[in-house]
TrEMBL record, chain A:
Protein name according to UniProt: Uncharacterized protein
Keywords from the named record: Coiled coil, Cytoplasm, Cytoskeleton
Compartment(s) where it occurs, according to its Swiss-Prot or TrEMBL record: Cytoplasm, Cytoskeleton
Coiled-coil intervals, chain numbering: 45-79
InterPro entries, per database record: BRICK1
Main location: cytoplasm
Source organism: Arachis hypogaea
From TrEMBL, chain B:
Protein name: Protein PIR
Organism: Arachis duranensis
A GO cellular-component term linked to this record: cytoplasm
Signal peptide start and end residues: none
Example GO molecular function: small GTPase binding
GO biological process: regulation of actin filament polymerization
PANTHER family to which the protein is assigned, alphabetical: CYTOPLASMIC FMR1-INTERACTING PROTEIN-RELATED
Length: 85, 1277
């Protein structure tokens, strides 16, 4: 019966595994932080978008108001005789 | 290890990234690589580093994985296959000669499709043979190579599953053989000219056989497997593995569970169909366990709209595998449609979400609270620079537990949805009308409203938990890695060490496996003190690690490590023998004590779950993916339509159900069902890789979203409208009402939705808030427009109702403005009134009121002096008006109940015109348009007078030159006859009526002005009361206004001045100029408000105007006596005409039962008397009026009659009615005169205007002349 197991050079493997743990710690640190950076960017975009949206809304209101005022002024100044007295 | 990057990243968190956006959508952004840890990202190439001689196994494993991947793509090709034949054109008769060309084209088109099918055929053949070869190689009794590992077993199961699915798809898709036969026909047509078509024909026949044989793939696999007769062992191992995993149900997420469920029946069929005795299977797995599993899951989801049933599969396969047909116990299982009603009920209870929603809700609430608290703990730990190792470990361990629980919850919930769908597909709705399509039967009419709501709730739980977990991905990653690391290290360093010391001491080969496990995964450096323990532990770690405290390291084991550990544990318990009886961890005959076995088993399954946790975002994405709810390829094919209408689409049904649902709490989840579209679009692009599906989804989403927004806006508008309407209902009415609660409005939390500026939909960001704002602006304008339209179709009395409705609209605008920045109401009102321009003073409403007065009110309404009301005369000719436009209840008051409540108020005012109407008019028109209206009415008066003039001249002409006093001797009868003789107007009755009408209209206008005057006075007084204390004014005794301070400023000015002085003198005052500005503004306010006081009376103004207008006709209507004294016989004066007219109509009204008073009302007296009064003829009229004289005569007569005959009235018989009417008219005339004297004192001036010579100056010029009115805005400007 062929048994499994039997790492041929257990000591070497052990040392390699140890080194692997350390290397991977470094890798996971880096990759996690890259992901955090990415997360930040995504969230930053989202926040910016909603801030821009609220700014846009205010501008919209102002624009409409301005348009109205312009029309009123144009309308009034087209007929200056009304303001003669 | 200190990484400077970390600090930089930490610095990012100092940015404030808060936005107002509520989280009411599922997770939208997936940051993940394509392959996670679950299948090793480097295809297990690192396994060889552990020197476990697994290279053969790894190679085979990777091969199977690639095949599975390919197979999935094949399956998606088959699943999304749509028949081409239907799209092929037919040639008209005129083009028959180009038939051959058409065949060629058709052939080329179909060839492309068929080549895909051919590819599938080839692929399945190679896959089957590879799978069979793999199984054979790894199941030899004399073992030469290590394996199969657990991951390998999984890969076999997955490939098998793909093959079964493909087979199932091929059977179910009817369009494929259809297309194929067409293809074959065109081939025979086209290939006529080709050479060497034999091989092609052969290939074609092969494909035909493949396509038309049911279960061809499975049969082929069976043949391949049993070419060499030794795969039963591994099949049995697979079955044991499947059964144990299913029974344990610990480490399985739902996709894996469904794979196992789908594969199991096929495995059972394959095993029992072999040559060998199938009894050996039942020795390892009791048949009852199998039957239990099959019975537990009577339907298994396979594709979005296609389910499998183990019983049906077994039954069908028994005809193809003759040996299997002896397994009667398995064959008698009922398929879902054969279930006896009782059992079906049981299953129904199990499958329908609605029966579990209570428990799910509790689970969700409980979980979110605990998850949030674990999250807070973790954040706290991070901020405290944790040195307390135990606490840190506990917090992180707790977080880990929460994540595991979350995954299990999500898996269970999503599985419930899959299974409910499968169940619904297996049991179409019974009481459907035959016109319904199949898809409607299984989806549209198969979910009750309750079930839909339950589904929405569950979907929103899944999505919200998913997005909650998704959001904290990078936050918890370290904690998870650390916890997993600690678990693995604890097991290999502590548990295994103690096992090695005790139970495995004597068993050399087993203990070697255990120490291998330690070698390949132990992280000795992670012990408390790295430098010290390094040397000892790496050499003989077993002795040293008694109570190791680990140095936490945030690194998780690799997929290869997990793979090897699982393999080694399996080796330990199975002894590497496939034929070992019993289960995986079944203890029978094992040399390992139960306790250790238990520990090994727990760790074994934990290892399996680690991978899911390491694959955090992929797992969350898989578990929250509900895209399958949209797909319906099978039903599209069987219904022979291109696409179903959106009413049949489950995601839209859910959105719709939320919008229609009376449960307002659900409204916050309304965006969640739209996430399903996101998921389906993702699936269409990434999983199925079909552009056309994405296009269809996109089209549907576009359509749905439009409808959604418009329905949502309607809901919002109705809600705010009814809220406003219910707030404006009379409180005393509500108090007295029996069921006042039907007028109250259930609050809906809409502000969440109103804040959504980023709705994620198919990769687009949609600003829902701005869309809603846009529509709200529009709908408010539409509503105002509608109210005006409506008013234009009604008479003037409706003005009260219009004002009420506009008030409600304004109030709802105010309420909505708290959450949404809509245009200002006054602006919208101005826009709709068409008086935005600074120089326009009329408005739509004002001109409507004016034209209404002109055409309907003045001619057709009569005045009742007592009630101060105008009512519509019963004699009036009805005016033609357009019919009243109808609209949704939301354009009135919101709901039906509120509408009827408000209508009953409005109805009280709809029959007359009086004070409330005048108030409404004043409030609606305001100071801007009211002068315009007044001017128009005054002009009307002067026009009327001009019109009357020739008519009156006509009447004057037919009067005798002089009319004396009526003689007393004729008595009443004689007098009346005499008067009639004088007034020989018989030929001019029309003229008479017209003059009367003219006078009536003038009277009406004047009375109307009187009402207006009262209203304006009231408003002025109110304003005065409010401003007087600030301006330092006091009302004096006789209407004068006194100032309190004799000199200096009013209180408001002095207050601000002193404040400003005090503030400026204070040294720390930030901006003294602003206070100066404030005090200047107070002065301006003072001036403005003072100027507005004492605005004068509209009525007096109107009377003055009328008198000025009469001036022109003064000479004609009132002849100045030459003598300078009153001439009693003069007959041309106006009062004579009016006298005649008055007696005429009094007589008429006395004679006819339906009297003419109903046509003219009291305003004739107002008009006539005012003109008389203004012409200075009041005294003449009172002296010489015919009816007054007759009344005097009647009095005398009555007195004499009483003297002679005590109690008989014979002389006056027949005249009572007339006399009564005359008395009434006299009373009324007196009332009018007294009013006129009060408001327009003419007498004193007349009295003063006596010339030096003694002759009276007949007519006084009033200081107000017409020219003074030019300051009023011109009508029509």
């Amino acid at each position: 019966m062929a048994r499994a197991g039997g790492i041929t050079n257990a000591v070497n493997v052990g040392i390699a595994v140890q080194a692997d743990w350390e290397n991977r710690e470094f890798i996971s640190h880096i990759s996690l932080n890259v992901r955090r950076l990415f997360d930040f960017l995504v969230q930053f975009e989202a926040t910016t978008k909603s801030k821009l949206a609220s700014l846009n809304e205010k501008l919209d209101v102002l624009e409409r108001r301005l348009e109205l005022l312009e029309v009123q002024v144009a309308n009034a100044s087209a007929n200056p005789s009304l303001f003669a007295t | 290890m200190a990484v400077p990057v970390e600090e930089a990243i930490a610095a990012l968190s100092t940015f404030s990234l808060d936005d107002e956006q509520p989280e009411v959508q599922g997770p939208g952004v997936w940051v993940s690589t394509e392959r996670g840890a679950t299948d090793s990202p480097i295809e297990y190439s690192d396994v060889s580093a552990y020197r476990l001689s697994l290279s053969e196994d790894t190679k085979a494993l990777n091969q199977l994985n690639i095949l599975t991947q390919e197979g999935k793509e094949m399956a998606s090709v088959l699943y999304t296959y749509r028949s081409c034949v239907k799209a092929l054109p037919q040639l008209p008769d005129s083009m028959k000669q180009s038939q051959a060309d058409l065949y060629l084209e058709t052939y080329q088109v179909l060839d492309l499709e068929m080549s895909r099918l051919r590819e599938i055929q080839r692929w399945q053949a190679s896959a089957s043979s590879k799978l069979a070869a793999d199984m054979q190689r790894f199941s030899r009794p004399e073992r030469r190579i290590n394996g199969p590992t657990i991951s390998h077993l999984w890969s076999m199961l997955k490939l098998l599953d793909v093959l079964v699915q493909l087979d199932h798809l091929k059977n179910a898709k009817a369009s494929i053989p259809n297309d194929f036969s067409w293809y074959k026909r065109t081939f025979t047509q086209v290939s006529g000219q080709w050479q060497d078509t034999d091989s092609m024909r052969e290939e074609l026949d092969d494909l035909q056989i493949f396509l038309s044989t049911r279960w061809a793939i499975l049969l082929n696999l069976h043949v391949e497997m049993f070419r060499v007769n030794n795969v039963e062992d591994i099949l049995q191992v697979l079955i044991v593995f499947v059964v144990e995993s299913l029974e344990l149900d610990f480490a399985l997420l739902f996709p894996e569970r469904h794979i196992l469920l789908r594969v199991l029946p096929v495995l059972v069929v394959l095993v029992t169909s072999s040559e060998k005795d199938s009894e050996s299977l039942y020795k390892r797995v009791k048949i009852n366990r199998l039957i239990n599993i099959f019975k537990n899951d009577v339907v298994i989801p396979a594709f979005p709209d296609l389910h499998l049933s183990p019983a049906a599969i077994l039954k069908e396969l028994s005809t193809y595998f003759p040996k299997f047909s002896s397994q009667t116990r398995l064959l008698t299982l009922p398929a879902p449609h054969e279930l006896p009603p009782r059992e079906a009920q049981e299953y129904q209870r199990h499958y329908l979400i609605i029966n579990h929603i209570g428990a799910i809700r509790a689970e969700h609430d409980d979980f979110t609270i605990r998850f949030a608290s674990a999250m807070n703990q973790l954040l706290l730990l991070k901020s405290t620079d944790g040195s307390d190792v135990d606490w840190s470990k506990e917090v992180k361990g707790n977080m880990y537990d929460m994540i595991v629980e979350g995954f299990q919850l999500l898996s269970r919930w999503t599985a419930r949805i899959w299974e409910q769908c499968a169940w619904k597909f297996s049991r179409p709705c019974k009481d459907a009308s035959p016109s319904f399509s199949d898809y409607e039967k299984v989806v549209r009419y198969n979910y009750t409203a309750e079930e839909r709501r339950g589904l929405v709730e569950l979907v929103s739980y899944i999505k919200s938990v998913g997005s909650m977990m998704q959001r904290c991905d990078t936050l918890v990653a370290e904690a998870l890695w650390e916890t997993i690391h600690a678990e693995v290290q604890d097991f290999v360093q502590n548990t295994l060490a103690s096992m090695l010391r005790t139970t495995f001491r004597k068993k050399k080969d087993l203990s070697r496996i255990l120490s291998d496990m330690r070698t390949l995964s132990a992280d000795w450096m992670a012990n408390t003190n790295k430098s010290e323990s390094e040397l000892q532990s790496s050499h003989h770690g077993g002795e040293e690690s008694r109570a190791n405290i680990f140095y936490p390291r945030a690194v998780a084991p690799t997929a290869a490590q997990v793979h090897c550990l699982q393999f080694l544990i399996y080796e330990v318990v199975s002894g590497g023998n496939l034929r070992r009886p019993g289960g995986l961890f079944g203890n029978s005959g094992s040399e390992i004590p139960v306790n250790d076995l238990k520990q090994l088993e727990t760790f074994f399954y934990k290892l399996g779950f680690f991978l899911h946790i390491l694959d955090y975002s992929v797992t969350v994405a898989t578990l929250t993916d509900l895209g399958f709810l949209w797909f319906r390829e099978f039903y599209l094919e069987s219904s022979r339509v291109i696409q179903f209408p959106i009413e049949c689409s489950l995601p839209w049904m859910l959105v719709d159900c939320v919008l229609e649902s009376p449960n307002s709490g659900l409204l916050e989840s309304v965006l969640i069902p739209l996430d399903i579209y996101n998921d389906s679009a993702q699936q269409a692009l990434v999983l199925l890789k079909q552009r056309f599906l994405y296009d269809e989804i996109e089209a549907e989403v576009d359509h749905c979203f439009d409808i959604f927004v418009s329905k949502l806006c309607e809901t919002i508008f109705t809600y705010y409208k009814s809220w406003a309407a219910s707030e404006l209902l009379d409180p005393s009415f509500l108090f007295a009402s029996d069921n006042a609660e039907k007028y109250s409005v259930q609050p809906i939390r809409l502000n969440m939705l109103l804040k959504m500026t980023r709705v994620k939909l198919l990769g687009r960001m949609i600003n829902l808030r701005s869309l809603i704002t846009e529509r709200m602006n529009k709908v408010f304008r539409e509503n105002i427009e509608f109210l005006f339209d409506r008013f234009e179709c009604q008479d003037l009395c409706a003005i009260v109702e219009v004002e009420k409705l506009l008030d409600i609209l304004k109030h709802s605008h105010e309420l909505l403005s708290r959450d949404l920045s809509v245009d200002s109401f006054s602006l919208m009102l101005n826009e709709m009134q068409e008086n935005i321009s600074l120089v326009s003073f009329s408005s739509r409403l004002a001109s409507q009121i004016w034209s209404e007065m002109q055409s309907d009110f003045l001619p057709n309404f009569i005045l009742c002096n007592t009630t101060q009301r105008f009512i519509r005369s019963s004699k009036a000719v009805p005016v033609q008006k357009p019919s009243i436009p109808s609209a949704k209840p939301s354009f009135y008051c919101g709901t039906q109940d509120l509408n009827s409540a408000h209508q009953s108020f409005a109805r009280l005012h709809s029959g007359f015109f009086g004070m409330p109407h005048m108030f409404s008019i004043v409030r609606l028109l305001g100071s801007r348009s009211l002068p315009w209206l007044i001017r128009a009415l005054l002009d009307h008066i002067s026009n009327k007078i001009t019109l009357l003039e020739p008519m009156i001249t006509g009447l004057q002409e037919s009067l005798p030159k002089s009319i004396g006093l009526l003689p007393f001797d004729g008595g009443v009868t004689g007098c009346v006859r005499l008067v009639k003789e004088h007034l020989n107007w018989e030929t001019k009755s029309e003229l008479k009526a017209e003059v009367l009408h003219g006078i009536k209209e003038i009277g009406s206008v004047l009375y109307w002005m009187g009402l207006l005057d009262i209203v304006l006075r009231e408003i002025d007084t109110k304003n005065f009361m409010q401003t007087a204390p600030w301006l330092g004014l006091l009302p004096g005794a006789d209407g004068q206004i006194l100032t309190t301070q004799d000199s200096g400023d009013s209180p408001v000015v002095s207050l601000f001045k002193s404040t400003a002085a005090a503030m400026v003198s204070y040294p720390g005052c930030p901006s003294p100029t602003s206070f100066h500005i404030m005090s200047k503004q107070a002065e301006a306010a003072d001036l403005l408000y003072k100027a507005n006081l004492n605005t004068g009376s509209v009525l007096e103004y109107a009377l003055a105007f009328t008198s000025a207008a009469l001036d022109k006709y003064c000479s004609k209507w009132s002849a100045a006596p030459k003598t300078g004294f009153i001439d009693i016989t003069i007959s041309k004066d106006f009062y004579r005409i009016y006298s005649g007219l008055q007696i005429g109509y009094l007589e008429e009204s006395a004679e006819v039962s339906s009297n003419s008073h109903e046509r003219l009302g009291d305003s004739v007296a107002w008009g006539g008397c005012t003109i008389i009064y203004l012409l200075g003829q009041q005294l003449h009229f009172e002296l010489f009026d015919f009816s007054y004289q007759i009344l005097n005569i009647a009095e005398v007569e009555a007195a004499s009659v009483i003297q002679t005959h005590k109690n008989s009235h014979f002389a006056m018989q027949g005249w009572e009615v007339l006399l009564e009417a005359m008395k009434k008219a006299r009373r009324l005339n007196n009332h009018v005169f007294s009013m006129l004297k009060a408001r327009c004192p003419l007498e004193e001036k007349t009295a003063c205007a006596i010339k030096q010579s003694g002759a009276p100056l007949h007519r006084i010029k009033f200081e107000n002349t017409v020219s003074a009115f030019e300051t009023l805005p011109q009508k029509g400007s």
